[in-house]
Amino acid sequence: MTPPRRTARPAPDQAVYAISVAAELTGAPIQSIRLWERHGLLTPHRTPGGTRRYSTNDLARITRITALAGAGVNIAGIGRILDLEDTNAALRAHHDS
């Protein structure tokens, strides 16, 4: 009997998911994802043809944005919160190294 095939997961920063897949995996509407990109909350990778591609890290960010929006935080507030969280993560990484 052949053992089950293992599928390698992409690296957290490897942009592999189309916007439709990102929306399905996170539960966020495609139009919301596009809106958040226009407001600078997301910066997906673009293929040479201009197609958006999202990484696992992007999916986590979309999930966080969805949670903040669901809590009633406006887009400007979400941007500020994400900036502070990114700064804290960078400081922690610097401190731990």
TrEMBL record:
Q: Where is the HTH merR-type domain?
A: 16-84
Q: Name one GO molecular function term.
A: DNA-binding transcription factor activity
What domain of life does the UniProt record list for this protein's source? Bacteria
| Protein name per Swiss-Prot or TrEMBL | MerR family transcriptional regulator
The answer to whether keyword Acetylation applies is no
Cite the PANTHER family for this sequence.
HTH-TYPE TRANSCRIPTIONAL REGULATOR YFMP (PTHR30204:SF58), REDOX-CYCLING DRUG-SENSING TRANSCRIPTIONAL ACTIVATOR SOXR (PTHR30204)
What PROSITE patterns does the database record attribute to this sequence?
A: HTH_MERR_2
Task: Provide the alphabetized UniProt keywords.
Answer: DNA-binding
* Membrane-crossing residue ranges in chain numbering: none
Native organism is Mycolicibacterium iranicum (Mycobacterium iranicum)
Q: In the UniProt record, does the keyword DNA-binding occur? A: yes
